[in-house]
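Reopening: ABC transporter ATP-binding protein still failing for me.
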Amino acid sequence: MAETTKNMSAPVIRVKDLYKIYRVGETKVRALNGVDFEIYKGEFVAIVGTSGSGKSTLLNMLAGLEKPTKGQIIIGKTHMEKLTEKQLVAFRREKVGFIFQSYNLLNTMNAIENVALPLSFRGVSKKDRLKKAREFMSLVGVADQEKHMPNQMSGGQQQRVGIARALVVNPQIIFADEPTGNLDSKTTMEVLRLMQRIVREQQQTLVMVTHDNHLASYADRRIRIVDGKITGIETGGRSALEETDKTAPEAQQPAQMEDITV
Ligand SMILES: Nc1ncnc2c1ncn2[C@@H]1O[C@H](COP(=O)(O)OP(=O)(O)OP(=O)(O)O)[C@@H](O)[C@H]1O
Ligand SMILES: [Mg+2]
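Support: Ran it again with your exact input. Result attached.
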């Protein structure tokens, strides 16, 4: 759980009056319909909602993959909505890590080359790239998969490689869109535990999108979204690190509802 001291520091992400309206033929889809919230350094925040509620739209805008129709996204001191395409590309490469549901590994590269790839955009030498990539593959428990091509690994192994690739540049913020959506429940818990441990150890901020309430219960805070609007923000999360696989969810402390907005 985030300590109160974290909440007294300046937010790392500020979202103000955010709208994303898609035009489909004659109709307008309000994917985000006026969203405000803040996320603090070192927090693990889940954005929770049903299919079509606007979760991916929101995450893609936070990560600089899409531009808002209206409103502000301030990351650190940077106004994302004011950046040019070129600046957004630089921002994505330098400041954030992204973990996808479908892993998104390059099929023509083996595991270690995939992990090392983000470092090549930074002009790191090949020797140092491979060294760093090897470190992170060890950290996420796939050191023995270096030479494997993506289609020679299980889903869980591919997702670990995807996590190593997101972490290798030591990003301040990690965005994850349904990172365990394609994994079984045991591997899901392993991946969750891994993400929770690493962001804590490295004081990074993790923003995870999910439709799964059980998974979301491990976040420090849950931002609930319905039809492009926030309906509530809950505080208090379980630690996947202290739980064994046998721990029944019912035995845990229920999360507290703190405030309801909109
Ligand atoms: N490029 C687009 N063009 C038009 N409409 C879009 C586009 N992208 C998303 N939408 C619409 O915006 C709404 C929110 O979509 P979004 O992908 O953010 O939902 P989601 O919460 O991530 O859902 P899921 O859990 O199924 O991934 C949906 O109604 C969707 O149809
Ligand atoms: Mg989505």
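The mean pLDDT is 88. If you still see a failure, please send the error message rather than a screenshot.
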